């Protein structure tokens, strides 16, 4: 006798739907509670200000010529403290660190496309509000696009730039496609409050490896970096949107590079697996007067392996004649090799310099003849 499967009853279908809905609600509630717990364990350590209706979290410490630090993706402004860069700069400088919109404790209002230009405008207005004059702007990774966007519009108001591990020219980025779903208005919201945090926890060991390889993940980063803070739904949104906007951000800046005449030092790790050092070499070739330093044995998080070198790069920009006198365009034809001290000899045909250093906190202050 042949047996036939009984069709699902309405009550069985309803039970399945209710179970699925309950699972989604549980994920939403659980992720919300985890986010609040992370914030209790890692309270804000700076101050807050409102700029154009956006609540920004920042710190403003120290005395001396100002330095502004702009962080990359997947981290917050506290990354500059964990790496040791901020402490080194605080010995001689006023150091201002922002959480970019949506990261850390800064808001990221809905309804705006938070491009590099939009973020640059916001941070520039924040600097004006804090009465910061002629700072050296230091950017890492995604933060370099924001730093360059500020310089493209207000280079006369800056002393110079120090750019670390930046994505300066568009290339095909499979990782950008992977985060696009999380940036979508409806689908992205559902993912961020349900499965994205769980997937993030699973992927985090691989992400950390990629960020630091070929170097090891530093013990201080392991101890102080909060995965739970990074995987809050609000910060996943910021990370996803910035990832999706990375290529457009680089494309928007490509025509502005040739007009930048302020001192620029570019630092990259020779083993960077997230943004290959070739991007830094391209920027060196197109920026008049830039200095390129390659740190051997360093990956994308080059500032952890070479924190002292980053601090010395800031000092080199501050000491550059171009930075001291202001942005006098009559002097911009002078190769930046004469304006920014290099750390080793060797020039490319256009006068920009490439410096190869071992992966240590060392900066050889040998001027070019």
Shape: globular
> Count of helical segments?
17
Tally the beta strands: 9
- What is the CATH topology assignment? Rossmann fold
Count of the separate structural domains: 1
Mean pLDDT: 85
Strand arrangement across the biggest beta sheet: 1-2-4-3-5-6-7-8-9
Give the biggest sheet: 9 strands, mixed
Any chance you could write out the topology, listing elements then pairs?
Elements: H1 10-41, E1 47-51, E2 54-61, E3 65-70, H2 79-82, H3 85-89, E4 93-98, H4 116-129, E5 136-140, H5 142-154, E6 160-164, H6 174-183, H7 187-193, H8 196-212, H9 219-224, H10 227-230, H11 233-244, H12 246-253, E7 264-269, H13 278-286, E8 290-295, H14 302-305, H15 307-319, H16 321-325, H17 336-339, E9 353-357
Parallel strand pairs: 3-4, 3-5, 5-6, 6-7, 7-8, 8-9
Antiparallel strand pairs: 1-2, 2-4
Helix pairs in contact: 4-5, 5-12, 6-7, 6-11, 7-11
How would you sum up this structure, described in words?
The chain is built from 17 helices and nine strands. It has 369 residues and is of the alpha/beta class. A hairpin with a 2-residue loop joins strand 1 and strand 2 (54-61).
